[in-house]
Design a protein that fits this description.
heterodimer, A: 221 residues, alpha/beta, Rossmann fold, two-stranded antiparallel ribbon, 6 helices, 11 strands, 25% helix, B: 79 residues, alpha+beta, Mth169, Chain: A, three-stranded antiparallel β-sheet, 2 helices, elongated
Chain lengths: 221, 79
C-alpha cells in the first residue's frame, strides 16, 4: 500500500507519521514537499502532519491549505483517496474545505500538551474499524488551536450521520460537543487533534493509536 | 500612472463565536480596575497596498479565499 506524508515548512510530526506508516504498511511513505503539484501515482493514503506550518501565520493551517500540493490532495480526496489529518493537519483540512467547521484558540487560552482521555464515537469507518464503539483510549494532544467550532446545524449533521470519530472524555480545549475528530461525508477523510502516531509501539508507553493505522491498511491495502 | 492606495480589511469573529482572547483581555482590563467594560472582541486588521486597478470584487475574493475564514469570521473592506 502506497502512502504519502505532506511536508510543509514548519511541519514537525511528519517523521513520526512516516514511522507509523512504515511500521503498519511495511513500506516507507513518500515524503511530498508542499511545493509539489502532484501526489505519487497510486497513493492510497495521504497523511497531513502536525506542526506549525507557515508559523501558523494568519490562522493555523490557512497558508498550508492554499499551497500547491493541497490542490492535488483535495482532488485525490474527491476521487476517494483516504486522507488523514492530525493536529495541524486537521486544521489544514478544515481550511482547505475538506472537513466542515474550524479549529479556534483553546477556550482556556493555554497550549495543551498532555495525554487526554478519548472515546470512540463510531467504529463504522475505515479509520476506526479496529476499535469498539465507546471504547476508552488515551492519546496525547499538543495544540493551541484545537477548539472545534461549527454551527449547530453542522454539528447535528455530523452526529446524525455518525461522522464524529473521536470525542474527548473531559473538557480539553472547549470543543463543541467534545469533538476531537471528524470524518467527511464520503467517509474517506478524517481530521483529529490527538496524535495517534505518538502511541503506536510499546516504547511509547501505550499503543492506543496503532489500530487506526492498522484499520486503514486493512481497508485500503 | 498607477497610484497605489491603502485598503484596510478588518476581520472580526462572527457573533456567537466564542472569543477566548477577547475574554482574557476583558478580564485583564477588569484587573486593572477599569469598570464599565461590557464585552471585548478581538479581531485583526490587514492593510493592503494595492494598485488602483484592483477592483472591489478582487478584494472581496481575497477576503473570501484567504484573509478571512468565513466559517467563523466576518470581514469589512475600507478603501
Amino acid at each position: 500500500m502506497k502512502t504519502a506524508v505532506i511536508v510543509f515548512p514548519g511541519s514537525n510530526c511528519d517523521r513520526d507519521l512516516a514511522v507509523a506508516l512504515e511500521q503498519t504498511t511495511g513500506r516507507k511513505p513518500a515524503m511530498v514537499w508542499h511545493r509539489e503539484s502532484a501526489l505519487p501515482e497510486g497513493t492510497a493514503l495521504v497523511a497531513v502532519p502536525g506542526g506549525f506550518s507557515y508559523g501558523d501565520y494568519l490562522r493555523s493551517g490557512a497558508m498550508a491549505a492554499r499551497s500547491p500540493i493541497m490542490k492535488a490532495v483535495v482532488e485525490a480526496a474527491g476521487r476517494g483517496t483516504a486522507v488523514l489529518g492530525v493536529c495541524n493537519g486537521f486544521q489544514i483540512l478544515t481550511e482547505a474545505g475538506l472537513l466542515p467547521g474550524a479549529l479556534m484558540r483553546n477556550a482556556g487560552l493555554s497550549f495543551v500538551c498532555r495525554d487526554v482521555p478519548l472515546t470512540i464515537a463510531t467504529s463504522q469507518s475505515a479509520f476506526t474499524s479496529r476499535y469498539e464503539a465507546d471504547e476508552a483510549l488515551s492519546i496525547p494532544v499538543a495544540h493551541h488551536d484545537g477548539n472545534y467550532f461549527a454551527d449547530d446545524e453542522t454539528l447535528d449533521r455530523l452526529e446524525g450521520e455518525g461522522r464524529v470519530a473521536f470525542r474527548y472524555a473531559e473538557d480539553v480545549n472547549g470543543s463543541a460537543r467534545d469533538i476531537a475528530g471528524i470524518i467527511n461525508e464520503a467517509g474517506n477523510v478524517l481530521g483529529m487533534m490527538p496524535h495517534p502516531e505518538r502511541v503506536i509501539e510499546a516504547a511509547h508507553g501505550r499503543t492506543d493509536g496503532r489500530r487506526l493505522f492498522e484499520g486503514l491498511v486493512a481497508a485500503l491495502a | 500612472m498607477a497610484a497605489a492606495m491603502k485598503t484596510r480589511v478588518t476581520i472580526t469573529l462572527k457573533n456567537g463565536v466564542l472569543d477566548p482572547q477577547g475574554k482574557a483581555i476583558h478580564h485583564a482590563l477588569e484587573g486593572l480596575g477599569f469598570s464599565g467594560v461590557n464585552d471585548v472582541r478581538a479581531g485583526k486588521l490587514i492593510e493592503l497596498d494595492l494598485d488602483e486597478g484592483v477592483s472591489d470584487r478582487d478584494i472581496e475574493a481575497m477576503c473570501r479565499k484567504l484573509l478571512a475564514n468565513t466559517v467563523i469570521e466576518n470581514f469589512r473592506i475600507e478603501r
